[in-house]
């Protein structure tokens, strides 16, 4: 940041000694040291906070990409399950049922359906 060498610092110290005198120079040095320490601590905290924010943002992006991947896989799996269910339904249903359910054959399908038993079931013997 600043390119201050030892010779520049020594020159500033000599000028401060001449201007302020030996009585007030130690107090000024302590105050300057305290302020510079507080400035360093502030910068350290600011840097740490910025790093935390960057990490949080990266984690959010990772979570969002993982959620997107899960949603995509769920959609693919749902589509595959629907296809398998449709295929299973087609393979189980006999061809005769498909023909009897055509618009013209609905009445024939209803007539050929088994009739419910009119007698009530008997209670089991104890």
From TrEMBL:
HAMAP family tied to this protein: TatB (MF_00237)
Family according to the record: Belongs to the TatB family.
Disordered: annotated span: 81-126
UniProt-recorded name of the protein: Sec-independent protein translocase protein TatB
Composition bias, Pro residues: 117-126
NCBIfam families noted in UniProt: tatB
Subunit structure: The Tat system comprises two distinct complexes: a TatABC complex, containing multiple copies of TatA, TatB and TatC subunits, and a separate TatA complex, containing only TatA subunits. Substrates initially bind to the TatABC complex, which probably triggers association of the separate TatA complex to form the active translocon.
Principal location: membrane
Membrane topology value: Single-pass membrane protein
Annotated compartments: Cell membrane; Membrane
Biased composition (Basic and acidic residues): 84-101
Role noted for this protein: Part of the twin-arginine translocation (Tat) system that transports large folded proteins containing a characteristic twin-arginine motif in their signal peptide across membranes. Together with TatC, TatB is part of a receptor directly interacting with Tat signal peptides. TatB may form an oligomeric binding site that transiently accommodates folded Tat precursor proteins before their translocation.
Annotated keywords: Cell membrane, Membrane, Protein transport, Translocation, Transmembrane, Transmembrane helix, Transport
Keyword Transport appears in the UniProt entry: yes
Pfam families the record matches: TatA_B_E (PF02416)
């Amino acid at each position: 940041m600043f390119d201050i060498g030892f010779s520049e610092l020594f020159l500033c110290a000599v000028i401060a000694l001449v201007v302020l005198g030996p009585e007030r120079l130690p107090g000024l040095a302590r105050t300057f040291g305290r302020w510079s320490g507080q400035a360093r601590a502030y910068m350290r905290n600011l840097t740490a906070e910025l790093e935390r924010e960057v990490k949080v943002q990266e984690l959010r992006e990772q979570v969002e990409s993982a959620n997107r991947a899960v949603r995509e896989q769920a959609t693919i799996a749902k589509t595959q399950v629907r296809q398998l269910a449709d295929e299973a339904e087609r393979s189980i249903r006999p061809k005769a049922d498909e023909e009897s359910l055509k618009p013209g054959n609905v009445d024939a399908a209803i007539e050929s359906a088994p009739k419910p038993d009119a007698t009530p079931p008997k209670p089991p013997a104890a």
